Amino acid sequence: MPLRSDxxxxxxxxxxxxxxxxDPWTLLVLREVFFGHTRFEDLRTHTGIAESVLSKRxxxxxxxxxxxxxxxxxxxxxxxxxxxxxxxxEGTLPVLNAMILFAEEHLQAPSATAHMQIIxxxxxxxxxxxxxxxxxxxxxxxxxxxxxxxxxxxxxVPLATAAVR
Length: 165
Ligand SMILES: [Zn+2]
Fold this sequence. Notes:
The protein has helices at 13-21, 24-34, 40-47, 51-63, 87-90, 93-106; strands at residues 67-73, 79-85, 116-120, 125-126, 145-149, 156-158. The strands form 2 sheets. It has a 4-stranded antiparallel β-sheet, covered by helices on one side. A two-stranded antiparallel ribbon has the order 1-2. 36% of the residues lie in helices and 18% in strands. By secondary structure, the protein is an alpha+beta fold. The mean pLDDT is 94. It has 2 domains: 13-89, Arc Repressor Mutant, subunit A (Orthogonal Bundle), CATH 1.10.10.10; 91-158, no CATH class. The N and C termini lie far apart (38 Å). It contains 6 helices and 6 strands. Zinc ion (ZN) binds next to loops.
């Protein structure tokens, strides 16, 4: 018996969205892809996700066209795969931004370094809107957005953009 219903044909767009993005690991995988990690091992290390779960989530994300799987050769000449954002995948940025902003506003942080900021790179201002710069009003895209994680480098990291258009 499935854990829950399949919502892919739901009349409600929120439910259809949850069918793809509703698993917590999925958003953490996307976080790492936006941070520039594209390889299976890097994604596993940075999320702490079990290999089998990561494989499943990556296949959901590629199956729905949010990530594109492309081959590369590692140092020993073995063919491996990396996962890059597509145009559709870029469209998840406001979802992740909204999650960050919700947590910063409403949930207690466990330490002083457990914070993130969303920076509109062209003007350099932090924004508290998920899809628009508070300071200049421009829409946010991965190409114009950087995340600052005080738990990581504490510096703005320009986000990865779609490799496939
Ligand atoms: Zn701005």
